[in-house]
Every structure is written in structure tokens, then in C-alpha cells.
Design a protein that fits this description.
Radius of gyration: 30 Å
Number of strands: 12
Shape: globular
Helix content: 40-55%
Number of helices: 34
Distance between the termini: 44 Å
Length: about 750
Amino acid sequence: MRKIALAMSIALAVTASVRAAEKQTDLRLFKAEVRPLLDRYCASCHNGEKAKAKYRVDNIGGNIAAGDDTIRWEKALEMISIGDMPPEEADRHPTKAERQKLKTWIATELKKIGRGKLDDTLKHPEQGNRVNHDDLFSGKHKGPAFSPPRLWRLSPQAYSELLSFDGSDATLEVLAGHGFKNYASLTADEAAVNVMLQTTDIVAAFMVGESVTMKRKSVHGGHRSRIERRPNHKLKAFVENESPSDEQFNQAIRDGFEAMYDREPSSSEHARYLKLLRETSDAVGHRIGMKTTLRAMMMSSEFMYRMELGLGEKQPDGRRMLSPMELAYAIGFAILDSGPDKTLLEAAKEGRLKTRADVEREVRRLLAVEEDPSNRLYQMSHRWWEFKPKKGRLLRFFREYFGYHRAADVFKDETRKHEHWPRFLVRDADQLVLYAIEQDKNVLEFLLTTDRYFVASYGEPERYFSWLEKTKASNNKNDRYRKQIEEEAKKGITRPPRASTKHIGAYGLPFRAWNYEPEQPFKQPVPRAGILTHPAWLVAHSGNFDNDIVRRGKWIREHLLADVVPELPIGVDAQLSTDPTKTLREKFAMKVYNDECWRCHKKMNPLGNAFEMYNDFGHYRTELHYDYQGNIVGSPRELNRLHDMASRNEHNRKDPRYKTTSKPIATDGKLDGTGNPKLDGDVENAIDMMHRLAKSDRVRQSFIRHMFRYWMGRNETLNDSPTLMAADKAYVDSSGSLTETLVILLTSDSFLYRK
């Protein structure tokens, strides 16, 4: 026993010493290789009291594990990783191998003490561009590609569809992270679980036949209450039965499982949930007992997560293909929110979902589903919130990629006197995206450059006349307005009711005299080019009171040019001047163009400046107008009021309160990073920029990378290079077909295999 004890103590001591050694900084490598690289490429600018950006490397400590200069090392890792240091204008630049050596050593040492960019953080969607773009499309990396085994959290929309419950998706929206919301790296933490518990309570009440009150956003961004009533459900009969039989108890469990899991419960599952149902029913009644049991079913891992472990046959390289049933669910959730349809499940059960060809057959079948033709006329009816396209997953990709759906979340002060209905603008943009999906030709190029948009209406012109007939018999107070519409109708002006068209001013359409265009999309009256000049996108990427050239430029840099913008450093004063007489460009010139902030802002501001031809409501403008106090008059409505007042009489013409001055808007910008010197350079305005970007191979490939992330639910790696290159080739060869690109992605090794 003494010998055994001695051996164990020696083993423990050795283990402890090994672990201690693992946590010590490799100073030998630091002195031999890291320090010389820092001296060669960094120290000439970052040394002494006058170091650039007040950042020094000449005296940086190398013992990271002991806590030496961890903040400075984290900053160095960030700048080296994204390629910002050394800057382009530097005399010398490290080779790719030298840069990789620095990154590896710093990251390894920081990881020993739990600092730096940890692996879990790098899995988030906003970190995807950290994989070098040129390497991904170089053809040097041959794979084999695969995804890790995972339990993938159900999306809010899938959760809603599985329950046939209209409203749970809004309640679960808090589960979404930055960027793409349906991502395997986004987990259900304590806050998310608490929200899900609240949702299960609502859904359980809904399923037993109770009335449920939900809050929904109205078309103009406010809130209104809505009552949802569940039709007669199998479980309603159970909860209303004062003394259900044993068979009815058993049937209630089977019905609950059918609703939740689309399968029969196992004997152990049946026994467990039956015990819970009986105990709670005896204690608090059948209704609450059934609701409690349903909530327990909804909080199980099987219901909350998709299982993608790779249960198929093992390959010689260690990869496993998804099993037929795993493939059915993976394909279903990739294209439909409701998961696999009956045909997919039958194919899996009958052994017809085992090969890549089988997968392609089912993917093409689901993508070939056509939308209801009656939706083409909008879809923009007064019940627009009920509009659910069959290809909702495809539409949501473009929503989350472009981000225009957040327009309704940007607060706009009503005192600025704009007619602003952001949710109609979002639906307009949705229709443009659905049109591009339907045409399925040069999808990205069309969405970046088209000058034809959909504009909301109540539908066909005949519906306007029907509305007029109804209003004749009504006894409302707006007789003057009704008569005005009747007179306009006689002249062929068929604009819809007043409340539904206040948003058309954002397009430059005359509210009082717009003749609805029955053929849509139609050419816009003012210069525009694609989604990035659509009012919905412009509002979504603006501030509460002004444009946001940083946010707009950052979006282009990261989503179209596959670049990385560093995070805002801690302690930086990011406040601009509040001078109301200054334009946004002028405010930034006062703040960032002459200091170290420009190192990052040069990646964003020149791109965002080109969008100054539109204001933060999406209105096109050529001039800035100032009132008598020198403040910018941002609202066309307010400008028209001032002009109207000044023209009324001689007294008003001399009144300084109604006088305005103007100066031209500066809309020039600069484009770089397209990968094509012919496209880079000064741009005249946003229109010019969009047409150049649409011609860039790098922009197209960046779009493909974002498609990969959305449908794979993870960031790309160098092993995925063959998948990305094949998808890019499919897009080019098919003249920009989204369908053909998706077929390649969903039949790739990255989608089919786990390891």
C-alpha cells in the first residue's frame, strides 16, 4: 500500500508540474522569433513617448502567462489577425508565414490565461470574415469538408410552425444573436430559457383552447393588442372533461406528443409524462395539469434542438454522413420553417434518402414550390402581417443579410414632421426580394442595382373603387376627403385610402396625386439602385436623428467586401458635435479625419459618404436646406410649409422666420477592396458605387460566404474551400441562379457530413 501511495503521489506531482508548465509562457520562442518580428515590423512606429496611437511594442513584456501587458497583446493579436498592421503605407510587411507565427504564439499564450479571442467567440456570425478571403477561393485547400456534430437550437420561426401557433416567433425573438439568427453557436442561456418558459405558458394555453392576448407591432411601429383563439383542439375536450377515464389520460399524452414531436411516445416517456399529468391534475385540476405537462414537453431537448450527430456509415477519414432521418430534418429546416414534409419523411423511412443524388432530388423538389399567384398583387393588404410566403426561409436570408427589416426598430422623432410608416417600407423591400427569388437570374446583381421597386397599395385599383362605394354610405366626418378621392377617381387617379399611403413620400412619389402603378415593380421617379438605396435599408442603417455613414460603410465593408472592421476600443470618445448647422460629413471631419480614429474610419466613412444623397428617412435630396436660425430643415413637409407661408403675402415674404437658404449635398465617396483596380477609386455617388460593386468577383464571393453561413448555421473554415468555390462556380455558370447555388450548398460535404 505504501508503494502504491508513493507511486500515486509521484504521478500527481508529475501531472501538476506538466499542467504548470503548460500554463507558463514560452519565453524561448518569444525571444528567438516573436521579439525579432516585432522589432522588424512594428517598433519603428510604436516606440517611445511619441508612439503612434499611443501604443508601444518596444517595451512590451513577453511573460503573458504572468499577466504581462495582456491588454496590449490582445490589441496586437486583433490588428495582426485582421491585417490592419502593419498599415499599407509601411515600408516592410511580414510574410504570410511570419504573420501566422505571430498570431499563433500570441493566441496560444493568451488562451492559457483565458484571454484573447476565444474559440467560442470566433464561432459567432459576425466573426466569419476572419478567415482569409483569398485563401478560401485560392483552390489550395482541398478539404475534406464537414460540419461538427451538434444539437442545433430550433429557430423561433420553426418553433412557431411546429406548434401552428401564430405569435411565438415574436416572443422568442430574444433568442436571436447578432447577424444571422439561426446559428448553431447561439445557445439557450438562462435569459433565453426564461423567455422560452413564458412562451411555453402562452402556447400551452393556446393548445387547450384558451384565449391568448398577444402584442404586435402595428404598421407605423406602435403596438396594438390582438386576441388569438385556438380552434377546437383534441386537448380541449380532455381539459373540459370533469372525470376523464384512464384511456383519455393516455390519449392526451399521445395527442401532446403528436403535436410536439410528430411521433408516438416511448413506453418510458409515456409513463413519465402520464405520472406528471395525473399528479398535477389531482392537485390543481385537469386544465392546469395538461398545460403543465405540455410545458414540460416543450422544454425538452428533443423539442428545443435539432439533432445532427452524423449517425450514418463511417468513412475511412473518420467522417460520418447524416442518417436518412437526420437528412430529412436537415433538408426540411434548410428550406422550410416547418421541418420535413410528408414526402421527405417517407423517403427517409423507405430508404430513398441515402445518397447525394437523393438529397439533390428532394432539395430541388422543395425549391420548385411556387408561391400563390394571388400574393403577387400585395401582399400589401391591410392584413399584411398574415402574409407568409412558402419560401419564407429564403426571404429571411435576405432580410437578415441586408438587415432592412430593422427599419421599424429605429426610433424617429415625430416632431420632425415626416410621414413615416417603416413597416410598409419593409414589406415593399420584401416584395422586391421575392420578385428576385422568383425571377432567379442574376439575383445579387439585380438586388444591388435595380431602379424598379414595389410600392405598397391596397391591391388592385378595383378595390379602391369598392372602398369608395362603401364610404358613400358611411357617416364619417371626413366628407371633404372622401369627395376629393371621388373627384380624383373620375380623373383616373386611383390612390388608396389616406392611412395606407403615407410612406410613399419616402420614394419621392407625390402623396396627393400618385396614380397607383398596377404593373410592379416600376421605375422610380428619383435616382436609386437596389436594396442599399431602398428607403427601408436607409432607415434601418441610420440613427434616430441623422444618417449614419459609419454604420452604412461598415455594412458594405463586412457584407460585400469580406473585410473586418475592428471593434470600438474601450475608452474612446465616439461622440460627434451636436452643432445643428453642420452636416454629418462635416461633423466627422471635425472628429476623426486628423487623428488615430481614421485608421478604422477610413474603412467605413468613404463608403458611407456616398449615401448622403438620401436622408435618414430614405428621401432623395440634392440640397441641404436651412431655416432662419441656420438649422437643417430635414422634412420635405416642413420645407413645403415654409415655402407656402412665404408665398402667401408680402408681409410673410419679408418675415425672416419663413426664409430658407440652401447648399448642394456632397455625395462623393471612395471605393476600395473590390479586388479589381478598375472598380476601385473615387465614386460620384451611391448609384455609381452600387453598379461598381455589382461587377466585383469579391462581392459575389462574399455573398456566397454569407449564404454558406446562413444555410450551414456556422462560419466557414479553410476545409470548406471546395464547397464555397463550387457554389460560386454554380452561381456564375447558372447566370446568377439562387436555386442552383443552393443545390450545390445543400448537397456539399459541408452539409452532409459530420466529424
